Structure formats: C-alpha cells, structure tokens
UniProtKB/TrEMBL annotation:
It comes from Pristionchus fissidentatus. Keywords: Disulfide bond, Glycoprotein, Glycosidase, Hydrolase, Membrane, Signal. Residues 75-97 are annotated as: Disordered. One of its GO terms (cellular component) is membrane. GO terms for biological process: carbohydrate metabolic process. This is P-type domain-containing protein. The keyword Disulfide bond applies. Belongs to the glycosyl hydrolase 31 family. Residues 19-66 form the P-type domain. PROSITE patterns: P_TREFOIL_2. Residues 1-21 form the signal peptide.
Amino acid sequence: STSRADMKALGLLFLFVGVQCSIPIDRRIDCHPESEPTEISCQSRDCVFDQTTNGPIGTPKCYMQADKMGYNFAGSNDNGASLQKNDGPRNPWGEDEPTLQLSVDNGKGNGVVNVRITTQTPRFDVSSILALPREIIPSEESLKVDISINKPSSFVVSREDGTKLFDTSIGGLIFSDKFIQIAALLPSDKMYGWGENIHQSLKHDFTRYTSWGMFAKGDAPNSTDLHTANLYGVHPFYLLIEPSGKAHGVFFLNSNAQDVTTLPAPGLVYRTIGGLLDMYFFPGPTPSQVIAQYHAFIGRPFMPSYWALGYQLCRWGYKSLDDLKSRVSAVMEEGIPLDVVYADIDYMDKRKDFTIGENWSGFDEYINELHANGMSTILIFDPAVQVDYDVFQRAKDRDVSFIEWERFDQVQPEIQNQYPMANDTKLMLGLVWPDRHVAFPDFLDTTNKTNDWWEDEFKRYYQKVKFDGAWIDMNEPQVFYTRNTPIDEEPKNGRYPVVCPKTGPDAEWDSPPYQTHAVFYYGEDSFLGDDSLCLSGLSQRRTNRMYNTRSLYGWSESKTTSEVMKKTTGRRSNVISRSTFASSGRYAGHWLGDNSANWNDLRTSISETMEFNMFGIPYVGSDVCGFKGISNQELCLRWQQMASYHSFFRNHNAIGYPYQDPAVWPTVAAATKKANEFRYRHLPYLYNLHYRASIAGETVVRPLFFEYPMDEKTHEISYQFMWGKSITVAPVYTQGATTVDVYIPEEGYYSIYDEDYGVKVAMGKKAYAAPTTSNTPTFVRASSIIPRHKSSALTTTSVRLQPFSLLIVPGEVESTGSLFWDDGDSIIEDWETADYVDADLSYSAVGESQSLTVNATHGAKSITVPPLAEFEIFDYPSSPDFASFTLNGAKMSISTQASKYSRITKILKIVFTQSVPIGAQGSTVIRWKNV
C-alpha cells in the first residue's frame, strides 16, 4: 500500500515535473549560478532541478519557477501601480519586500519612457550623484507601457504598432534589500552593448545562456575564447534591432554590483544587489537616433583637443629620461608623425604622485623642448597617495575626505600604527604601486575640500612640469593583495594588505547574499572586494558606502580631474581614464586596458571601440601592439594600421617586455608612417566627427548597421567599421593575411587607399588586397564630401597650418559634408559664443553646370582659419572648362598646371591659384562648367 508520506513525495515530484514542462528550455532563470547545484541544494531554494543535456549551452540545471514568483497588481495610481508580493516560491537571496511601487513616466509623449520599481521607503538612488542632464530629443516614435493585472503582474514596453520591446510576462520579479531581479522577453536576438566586458563578437550570442558581470574591477581583458569577466567600467546599456529593422535602447541606471544573463528565447535576466530598478527606454527608431537619445540623456562627450588626435607614444618601463628620449628620437627619425609623449609611473620618485624620480632630472626642460617642437606630454596620475609625505599632509591639513572604515575597531592597527600622519584616522589604507600604504581620495566628497586639494596639487606640480594632459589609472579603484582573511605570516617591510570583513556582524556589505557574476566567474575563493577596497568602506564624506559607489570611483575622479585640468592649464581638458561609468564621456576618454600582444586582442579592440562609442565615450582606443607579452613585427604592423582610425591612438607596452614602438622594425616604421600620414591628412574629418559627437551625440567609429539597419548582413559584422557615416574601414586582423574580406552594403563606394584609388567598387562581399606595404582597405561613400588637409605633416601643430582640401564623391543625390574648425585647444563653455567655424559643404551637378558651396552657419571671430586650396572629385564625367570657374559670381583663377583631369581614372583635381577664405559666416559658392 502507499503511505501518506509516499503520496506526499509523489505529489512533490509531480509538482516539479509539471513545472519543468511549463518553463521552456530556452527561457530558464538560473537559481544556482554560483556553483554546480545538487538536487538537494536546488530544491532547498524552491527551485527546479533538471539535468536535461539537450538544451542550449549553459542551460541552468537548477532554475526558478519564474511563472509563479513575483508581485500581484494591488491597485493603480497617478503614474503606475502598487504591487503586493504573492505567495509564490521564495527568494533564494533575501527577504522579499512586501510592497513595491511601479512608476511609469512617458516623458510627455516625446518617446523616452522611464519605468521605476522600488520600495515605499527611500533607497540609494545613483541619479542623485550623477546629476545627468536628462535632455530629451523628441522622437517620431512613441512607446507605451501596459501593466497586467494577471497573477503575478507584469508589464510590457511596446511600440504603437504592437511590437513588444520588453515583456516581463516571463516572470521572476524579485525585490529584496540586497537582491533585485527582473527578466524580460525580447523581440529579437540582435543585441549590442553591455559593458565593460570582452565580447567575442559585436552582436551578443543568443544560441546559448551567457552571463556578464558589471562591477568596476582592475582586471586585464582576455580575448582568448569566451571570458565573461567584469572589467574596468560599468555601462548597463544595450541597443537592439527589431525584426522590422527599427532599433531601440535600454539603460539600467544602477551603480551597484550587477549582472545580466542573455537567454536563447531571446530574453534577458538583469540582477543587481542594491539601489532600485530604474529603466529608460529609447525609441530610436534608427540605431543612430537611439544613441543620440541616450547621449542626450546621460550627457554628450567632451571635445578633445586637436593635438590629442595625434599619434601617441608610451611605455611602462623606461629606465630613465634618456631612455624615453632615445625611443622618441628613434620614432621621429623614421619620419613618423608623432604628437604626444607619455610618461608612466617610471617618472615618479618611488611611484608617488606629484614627484620626479632621480633618473628623470631635466624632465621639465625636455617637456619644454617638446612644446617648442609642437608636441605635447601626458603624465600618469594614480588616485591613491602614500600616507607619509607632504602631499598627504596637505590633504590632512585641508580636511580632505578619503575612503575610510566606519569605526575605529575595524581599523587594522598593524597598518595604521606605521604612519604617524594616519594613525589617528579611520582611513582604509591599502597597497598599490608606492612602497608604502596609500589612502584613496573620496572624489564624491559632498564638500569642495577634496576637489580643491586635488586642484592645488595639480597646480603645484604644473609649476614644475608643464604637462598637457592627465592619464588617470588604477581608479576602479584597484588595490593589491586585498584579502577576506588575515594573512598567516609577517609581510616584508610591513606591507600588510587590507582585510575585508567577510564573516561576522560587519560582513553584510562585503559578503552579501548574492555575489553576482563578478564573483561567480572567478570561483569559490573570490569575493566582491577582490583587488579593491572593502565594500563596507565609507564614501561621499562618510554618508555612503563603497557597496553603492565603487563603480563610480573612476567617474568621480574623471569629473574632478577634468575640471582641475582646465583650471591648471587654462586650456581644454584631455583626460584618459581606465575606469568609466555611464556619462564618463562628458569628462574623459578611455583606453581599453592592459591587453595582450596577440591577434585576439587586436580583433576585440575593434568591436570594443564601437561599443564605447555607443556608451558615449568616442575618445577611445587600445594599447597598440599589445600591453602585455612580446609583440612581433606582423602583429604590430597590422595593429598600427587598424588603430590609426581610432580617436585615441597610442602605442604602449609593459615593463619587462621588449620595446615595441614602430621604430623597432623597418617594415612597421614604414607602415606606421604611411598610416599616420593618411590619418593626419584626414584629421579635419575626424575632428569634425568629434564636434558632431559633442553637440549631437553622434558616434565617431560605428558599426555598419548604424548606416544600414535594414541590411541584415551588417548586423553580424564585428570587425569592419564606419568612420562617421561616409567612410568604411576593413582592417586586417588575422595572422598571415594579405587580403581582407570587405562587405560593401550599397552601390557607390570608392577606394581611397593605395589599391585602385578613386575606383568605384562593387556592392557585396569581396576580398580586397591588403599588403603590408599599403594602407588599410578604406572606402568612401557616394554623395559625401570629406574635408582634409592638403597634405600631411609631422605634428598636428604643423598640419593645422596646411590649407584645406575637399574630397567630393558624387552620387544620385547632392553630395554633402561638414567642416568644423576652431583653435583646437581653447575651453568651450558655450557653443553659442565660442569662436569657431561650422560649415555645411555641398556639391551638385545639373547638366554641364557644377557648383561647390561652403556655407558657414557659424563664422569665426578671431581665430585663424586655413583657406580652401583645392578639391578632388571622383567619377567625374568629362573635362572642366578651367576658364569658367567663378567665386561668388566673380571670375577666379585656376592653376592649370596643378589642376588635372584623367579620362582613365575619372578623377578631377582642381587647385586654386589663390586659396579661398571660408572662415566668415555666410556662403562661398564656386561654379564652373564642363567643356
């Protein structure tokens, strides 16, 4: 006979089997992400254990009964609904909040929709720190939010045509103090974004389950195979292309440790351990419009100086100033255009900020010499300062805020007692590059004291060394040797590591119930404080915790340093930061971190650069030729060629590895010289792209699908990119390759590299020659006008003296372009009153009559604007009548010796006898006729 216990067991089994069948295998929410589950450990969480092996890669063996868990609709109010926790399966990582408020703001019908889910009582809200501009760009598309009264309740964000963009009917809403989860079904698998991580392809892979951590961590990227680790910055934003070809974006405004899992359904699961669910939906409907809307909301990127777009040389491991000088001279002797010389921590005295080492005597004179040659210098500054020298004493005297412990009994006496300047403080001291312990400035200080001290130290140092830009590193912040248990032995020289409380009454911050993928990826011995400060540490002048603000450390240092650099130099701020957060692009650029000298890292740096342009940081690039490891001639050559199209263009490598500047190999030197000359000649085009990014939120380097969203072939392309809307670049990223596959998405592209310059290329996919002796395969789009310098030069200072040249590519419609010009370095406080030229360029042909117009909608006031000296037109049908040229209706003189037309190449080049001024507001019109 069957006992009551047996029946109960059978009933429980029946329940689980039924749930297994009700949750499709492509939309399961992992209930045991931290380790391999057992049936017992899974069921103890009220979850379903299923060892099915025929599902997608990464299918959870232990998954939630998501369709039964969540909150029920409890009534509507003015801007949303109140929600009541249902009696479904329990939350594995905390006690559920009993009631929630779901608020909807449709932005008064302008397209952008905000959905917030939070508790009745106040919670940490990162928006109070960021102070985002939240500018709204009206859209032709509107979104709506429908809240379901089903049990459990859900909501759907959709377009007016019914397309569901974010459908939470999948279930699984959880909200507790230190664990929040929301899941949604998506309209397609064409997702791009989330960061900072290494993605093997630009488009996310929905053939499998994949989790990505987002929490600032000073961990080097690894592009070998699939590595889903969280890196230096946090950008919880994605763009998705719908089946119709329309695009939308979603931004999760949250700074706590978080992760996202993509589901094959397609769908996603978003989790965070603090704050609230604050989601913004951008309707597009084109990819470029999505990004413009997102950048308007978070803040558009800063405008870099002209010199900052030049080639940059760096190395960690110069033994002395003479060592640095010798490598700079070697590069210059090859005739390679070069603008910026860097000094890494080698220049400091024992790696302490605002010092100069004994092997760097005369550093100030050398920088002055570089300035005399039209070049610039960027120095590295780490945020943490050693606590036993004058810089720290001045900070203490000025009541500067540092990251600190909450109570004195948490302070580690074995550390603090070593330092008379710090032994009466609760400062959380750690180890980084200096020999002794350091303290970490609190750049979120609610007073101005910390910022004022930082400014004072920069100005003091500037009196010694006239540096031009700031490279801020280690600002996740990274801390060496952080531990969660005390060490067993006495360290050398008293270098005790900071120990974070992982057990006991103080462990709730450093050991929360849910550790996120930022821990799960690294294994059981990991914890959230690894390689950083303890999350229990106090920030924002002791009113907040690193638990909430760690991922904002780099952002806050960037914001502060940007303002400090303006006040220190009196010129435009040029700051490069390792750690970034949403809106960091307003203040700083970013390099992609401590990559490795291999082909995988070259390849992923291409897609990463496109991602950071989406994130609002277009001044971005990689350590060219690789930071770690031994680079080689072919790899370095191809990397130099590819990176010459990235806004931040720096060769950099690590101590202990051979020199890898381009002068090391004659072939690399020749290829770099050629690539840099192309870049320097086209700097007006690149500078104009950054201007458009700064005023309109455009991208500089963008995926092909931004321009061709209806062409599904472009959705899968990760390593060919657009330079603005008019130029496509197809770099070589494979060892041994002498050709590269290029996809030309439409008729009317022309080659502008060595192979068949000016020749029209066929639409579709084709292999193009890419010998090491030529530039990267580069093609310009029909109906475009590209502003450029008449020729290249060895520095941006020199090339700015060159007159302008225009490349005109005709098409079925009028050819257009734009030109921006200013003095290249002045601080821009207000675009309305700034001194610059913003000109629309247009070319049209009606029969035998041709016209070129430069219409300066904003004219220069006092700056020097180079004149227009020449133009070139591809695919020109016949010879022009040189005697027919007029300028604003008056006859103009053309150099008949320098001007020419080829019936074979169909390229027309016109050189003016006297260059044409274009700086004043108004139109300049050149007309002519053909023979």
